[in-house]
């Protein structure tokens, strides 16, 4: 398993080892021991799966009170996945990074994205449909459910909307009116740190 740095400290791309033969391939998408050895969390409490159609844009979501770290994998289709650092004491506060996630990369590698607690998360579906599978470090907590506006000009995410060929992004009513970063209720400054992640 390879652990790759990204433009955001603590957000990591993970490449599990693929074992190939004439029949296809096999990979350990999650192995608690391997994750611990790489300094990643190994205690996930919930698996979520979603299916979305082309043009659906979800985000930027996070939780207060019971923050969730997310291990994200695209199991069908193609998404543009985005993480935004919402930790007010972080040097990367307000910065974002985007990643093209597919079942396999163009180089034939399996990639997953680790997004720690304290980050907003969102994605845009670029294929006809896409399925996302993600593990979380905490249970869903409806009272703590929050979002920052996906098109906040202060964050200025470069969503690849041109790849939708004129289709307008499909955004939920809740996400459409989510607050901007400067007025959002953000994780507390004393939110759990991710120092266990190797820089």
UniProtKB/TrEMBL annotation:
The active site is at residues 61, 134. This is dTDP-4-dehydrorhamnose 3,5-epimerase. GO terms for biological process: dTDP-rhamnose biosynthetic process; polysaccharide biosynthetic process. It comes from Terriglobus saanensis (strain ATCC BAA-1853 / DSM 23119 / SP1PR4). Keywords: Isomerase. It catalyses: dTDP-4-dehydro-6-deoxy-alpha-D-glucose = dTDP-4-dehydro-beta-L-rhamnose. Pathway: Carbohydrate biosynthesis; dTDP-L-rhamnose biosynthesis. One of its GO terms (molecular function) is dTDP-4-dehydrorhamnose 3,5-epimerase activity. NCBIfam families: rmlC (TIGR01221). The record marks 140 as: Participates in a stacking interaction with the thymidine ring of dTDP-4-oxo-6-deoxyglucose. Homodimer. GO terms for cellular component: cytosol.
